[in-house]
Amino acid sequence: MKNGKYAVGVVGAGGIGQYHIEGWKKIPDVVIYGIADSSKETLDKVKLKYDISFATTDYKKLIGIEEIDIIDICTPNAFHYPVAIAALKNKKHVICEKPLATNSAHIEKMIQAARENKRKLMAAQNQRFTAAGQATKKIIDNGLLGEIYFAQCYAVRRRELPPRETFIRHALSGGGPMFDIGVHILDIGYWFMGCPKVHSVKGVTFNKLAGREDITGSWGEWDRNKFDVEDFAAGFVLFKDGRALQLTCSFLSNLPSNWSSNLYGTKAGMIWPEMKMFSEISGLHNDSILSPIVPDDEPSHHKELKHFLDCVRDNRDVLVKPEESLEVIKILEGMYISAEKKKEVIY
Ligand SMILES: NC(=O)c1ccc[n+]([C@@H]2O[C@H](COP(=O)([O-])OP(=O)(O)OC[C@H]3O[C@@H](n4cnc5c(N)ncnc54)[C@H](O)[C@@H]3O)[C@@H](O)[C@H]2O)c1
């Protein structure tokens, strides 16, 4: 704590790190103690922009500060694990950008470190905090869809490939669109279904467009020689209770972009995040579009930070339980293994 406020240290002050800084700054009982970033140039810029007094290129120096309560990890995926372990061992609560880590073995160790040090750990799966995400979950919990027996989850981008090395090199990202955006859409679909235990997965990955010089990306050029992740992935998850989920993800595709989760329920179906609901009433189709009575414009990324602080302050369970993130990453890992071995992976 610093001057009676919760002290936060942000590791990784790039795009999402700065968005988090803006979110933390809105919370009255939080102070941003400092930032760490391996780029001196970024540090200097962000320090000045947000009036932050402590800045270091060595994240261990930030994590070592006793007054800091919360470490917020916004580095590229491959660094989530070492930073989180160091922070938890230094008795910090950890909120970490998605994916929580690039493999399930690392997440298991992170969960263990959180337990041993009695600290909170949560992946920043902001989709769960969107107004549509929260409303859909409430509708499901109120039983309005009945049993959701199947979900189709799409994180399909037509020509939106993040060109930075940290997204296109496996060693830094852990995977292509499946790890970058598939993790979002799988997490929310899986949460809508009540986080069932996984029985088996089957997946395919392709790299048909990203290596081609005649393909254009709306976010700029990428280095074709360094691109070693998939540009498209699809898979099928069978849960132990017999229900199932289908996942489709791409950075590049010759079909329109699609960001949605179609929920097949026994009482009604629903398309998220459009909030369209479909059912039958007295032999008639019943199609409705749900909209909030009181609009909620607060960014989901900022809501997740507030939620995390509430959990720390009141010693409550976090909404995105690390065990759920572990299951999500196990599914994605299984899809890669299945794609490579051309067979189903059974858990
Ligand atoms: N939830 C979301 O909507 C969302 C959106 C974008 C990115 N992300 C996630 O946020 C993370 C960062 O993505 P980004 O788009 O902000 O990337 P970015 O490249 O803009 O920022 C990453 C920052 O981390 C710094 N960095 C790299 N290695 C470091 C290290 N070892 N120690 C300290 N700093 C280091 C870089 O210098 C850079 O400033 C990724 O895990 C990504 O998946 C989440």
Automatic annotation (TrEMBL):
Coiled coil: none annotated. Residues 8-123 form the Gfo/Idh/MocA-like oxidoreductase N-terminal domain. The keyword Mitochondrion does not apply. Keywords: Oxidoreductase. GO terms for molecular function: nucleotide binding; oxidoreductase activity. It is an enzyme of class 1 (oxidoreductase). It comes from the Bacteria. Its EC number is 1.-.-.-. InterPro entries: Gfo/Idh/MocA-like_OxRdtase_N, Gfo/Idh/MocA_oxidrdct_glycsds, GFO_IDH_MocA-like_dom, NAD(P)-bd_dom_sf. The keyword Oxidoreductase applies. Residues 134-269 form the GFO/IDH/MocA-like oxidoreductase domain. PANTHER family: BCDNA.GH03377. This is Oxidoreductase YcjS. The gene is ycjS_3.
